Amino acid sequence: MPPVHTPSSPISHIEISISDQTLVLVDSSGQALARYRISTALNGPGERNASGCTPRGEHYVRAMIGRGLPLNTVFIARRPTGERYSPELAAAHPDRDWILSRILWLCGREWGRNRGPGVDTFRRFIYIHGTPDTEPMGVAHSHGCIRMRNQDVADLFERVAPGTRVLIL
Predict the structure, then answer these.
(1) Tally of CB atoms within 10 A around 46
(2) pLDDT digits (tens, 9 = 90+) for 85-118
(3) Exposure check for the chain: N or C terminus, fewer CB within 10 A?
């Protein structure tokens, strides 16, 4: 398993509260550096494959995708499509689960809970990612991922690095 990232900045880890629908960036002294409203899974917490739930426990940022791309860049299968989200694009594709701006792809650290057969966060493609600004924050509404406002996920993306510890409670 890769080591926990200790960047030159005082970032210690990310704490995600499913009950409060918040993501907090925490420094090495335990102080909150930033707090964001988020949206986790409509199906609630859970680790099973195909559950549509947000996995709990200790994770880390395994990959970061989207550096330097404009806000509202559309991703499908972690690749930019060349599209930028707009109300017109949304109307043309009403059933898309929009993944926008940046992707922080999570990997579980707890074998049998959020890593390994039947419960693997990474293989479930669980991300912290941007979503249309029309989507609600502060309420559970996603398909398992952690959704953020586009400006917020871009800010978070610039403050962390691969290996950053992520606790989902």
Answers:
(1) 14
(2) 999 999 999 999 999 999 999 999 999 999 999 9
(3) N
